[in-house]
Structures are given as structure tokens and as C-alpha cells.
């Protein structure tokens, strides 16, 4: 009632139609209704779809099917190698690929191509194929949608804990069980619920990649000018005769985060008005352009840091002292306590900074924690990149050796390379420094958005969080040095 409706009855009808399409349980809520779509943030971005060759490739019916068709059979081969191959992970092709190539590809890929990995993911592709054979198409429960952030945060922390506490890297069989379990969940939820509900609301790996993808220099967004003035049929959501709608149930003009986009290109194929843009942007720009921040998402980001740090410190004197306090308990219990303490400590440190910063910003501590906690994302991402870079370099060297020994192709022998440890350490430290700088810049930009005039006040507001970022950077430096070298 407080909106002027410059588009008259057509804009009103379109707005209500969109609201009905995305509403849950047939109830319209304020968050289902959005207007004034014409405001877009296109400055400083390059639309790659202006290239005819790129546009043709994305609109092709082979995209991304051709990649999924290759990934799905490979996934089953990988499972066979994990279950039936050698128990020694250094001799098992499946285990080497999973940990030396698979995980690094996911982490680095979240930056390089955002959440496109979820379009390639064989588990999601197999679930989608199962859906075509049998589908009940039940609407995903609204209460699970509301708790999705918590479910993803807890399940992602469980995956990180499981990997460390059970030394999953040393057991190809257990690695296979984990991948098989995720695939079965994906198939079950694909058959029972509408669209790709598992990938959107529940998948722990997809949830982690979605959060990390916020830092990516790529984004798929709609030109909301076109949506508001020309579209009344919403093919991006409902689909067309040749292509289904958004698998994540997103309305293109309301999409503002890489977290909810797997870059499958369905909206590009379906939109008859050419409103979709594949933008090249400044990495991390999405964070300082956000209008709403969720404390749960920030908790997940900081907890990912805590989980990573707990593993890096596991071989150091801090863990030794902690272990001696509980030496009479089973080792897995002691590590679980250490894992929990690391997560809670990282969150507590950020919370204290938020309590101080909120006194300057004039917002609540929760709002401040949500905003600046997300600013730590570049540091967390590069921390994971630095961690997995070591395995990519030092475990990856065994991959061609094992291929050569297994398949007796001499070409694999020529692919063996070695990298001096000092080079690896330098690359890891450089990544962490870049992430720390990115966090500081984004933190400042977030304060700038809150106080656009008084520079001194912005600096005072952001300083506690900059200090936290520097402390967390120092722990990463120490952890990498002590764990790997």
C-alpha cells in the first residue's frame, strides 16, 4: 500500500503472480512480495553473455548435460576403486583422486567458477536422473526451509569433524561410504520432493560451496529493468517446453547471491527477453552489496575456520596440553572437545569484536556479528585453499605414479613432478595473506555502507574486526607451519 506502482496494474499483477509462485503452503508473506526491481548494480561488471560464442554455449541443450554425462559414470568407477581397491590410500587411485584432486578442485572451483561444481556434481546429476524415472514432487516442507541454514551449518561441521576425527583420508573404504551415503540422500530427496531440494536446502558440501562462492568473480544475475518492464510469465521459475525452471526454485530478478545459483543456465535458456547476465565482477563484491546478513551464515563461516584450525593445531603443543587435561578419555572424544573449543573460540572472538563495534555502529550485537562475520569469508576460503594446496601438490604427485603402476601406461610416469617444500609454504602463506587483505577491505566497505560520511567513525567501528582478522591470520600461519612442516 505504501508503493506508488509506477508500472500500474501490469506491475501489480506480475508482482502478485511472482509472490504466489514462490510462496510456501499457499500463504503470502512479506518476503514473497518485492517490487521496484529496476534498481540494478551493473556498474563495474562485464556481462560475458554479450559474447555470441559464450551465449550460444550456455543456451546449448548440451550445457551442462555433457559434463554431467561424463561425471556420473566416473563417480561409479570412483566408488568401485574406493571399495575394491587397495586399503593403502597411497596406492588407491580412488582415494588419491578424492583427496588430492577432488577436494582441492571443489575449494578452488568455488572461487574460480562459483557454485558451478553443483551442476557438475555426479551425486546431484544421479538424483536428477532418478527424479525423471520416479518423482512424487512433494513441496519441500516449509519448516525445513526455515531451518535450512542451521541444517547445512551443522551437517557441514559434521563432515569436517568426521574427516579429521576418523582420519578419513587414511581409509578409502570409509571415504567411499561417505560419498555413497551423500548420493543416496540426494536420490531419496530428489524422488520425494520437488525440484532439487537436497542440493538447495540440505547438502552439506553444496552448502559449503555455496557460501564460498560468494567470493567468486562470477555471478549470474537478471537485468531487473527487463524483468519489471517486459516479463509477466516468469519462465525462469516455471520453465518452458524445452527446459525446466530453476532447480533451486529461484525467481531470477530476486537472485542476489551465488549461494542460491548453480550456474546451470536454465534461466538463460528459458528467458525470452534476454534478461540474464553472466557477470565478471570484483571478487567479494557480493558481500558488501548485501542488504541482509544472516547470523547463522556468519556462524558457519567462522565455524569452518575453527574446524580447519583444529586440524592444523592437532600436531602442535596446544593440542598436546589440551590432550593431557583429558588423557583418560578416548582420543576421538578429546579431539571432539578440542574441535568444539576451536569453533566456539573463533565465534566468541568475533562476538566480542561485534559487541565493541556495535557500540559505534548503533546496531545490535547480532546484526554486527552477522555483517562482519561474513567479511571473514575471504580469509576462510584462502585458508582452505592453502590447506588443500599442500595435498594437491604432495599427494597429487603420487596420482600419476599409481596410475602408471596400475595401468602400465608409461605416459603417466612422465607426469610426475616434485615441488620444493619452501615453494609450497610460500604459496600457502601468500594465499592466506591475500585472504586476510580481502577480509580487511570488505570489512571496511561494510562499515562504509553503514556510515557513508565520517571516515574516523567507520575506522573505529571496523577496527575490532580488523584485529580479529589479523589474529586469525596469525593462527593460520602458525597452524600451517606446524602441521605440514
Characterization of the model:
By secondary structure, this protein is mostly helical. It has 3 domains: 36 residues; 247 residues, no CATH class; 193 residues, no CATH class. Helices cover 66% and strands 2% of the residues. The chain is built from 24 helices and 3 strands. The chain has a 3-stranded antiparallel beta sheet. Helix 16 packs across helix 18. The radius of gyration is 23 Å and the shape is globular.
Secondary structure elements and pairings:
Blueprint (H helix, E strand, L loop, with lengths): L7 H15 L23 E2 L4 H8 L5 H20 L8 H20 L4 H4 L1 H12 L8 H5 L1 H18 L6 H21 L4 H6 L1 H9 L5 E5 L1 H7 L4 H4 L27 H5 L5 E5 L4 H5 L5 H18 L4 H9 L5 H31 L3 H11 L1 H18 L3 H10 L2 H4 L7 H30 L4 H30 L1
Antiparallel strand pairs: 1-3, 2-3
Helix pairs in contact: 3-4, 3-6, 3-9, 4-20, 4-21, 6-9, 8-11, 8-16, 16-18, 16-19, 16-20, 18-19, 18-24, 20-23, 20-24, 23-24
Mean pLDDT metric: 89
Count every beta strand, where a strand is a DSSP E run of 2 or more residues.
3
Rg result = 23 Å
- Catalogue the unreliable spans: none
Q: In which range does the helix fraction lie?
A: 55-70%
Structural class: mainly alpha
| Fraction in beta strands | under 5%
- Termini distance? 64 Å
- Topology order in helix (H) and strand (E) letters: HEHHHHHHHHHHEHHHEHHHHHHHHHH
Q: Tally the helices: what do you get?
A: 24
What is the strand arrangement across the widest sheet?
1-3-2
**In this structure, how is the largest beta sheet organized?**
3 strands, antiparallel
* Count of individual domains: 3
What gross morphology would you assign? Answer: globular
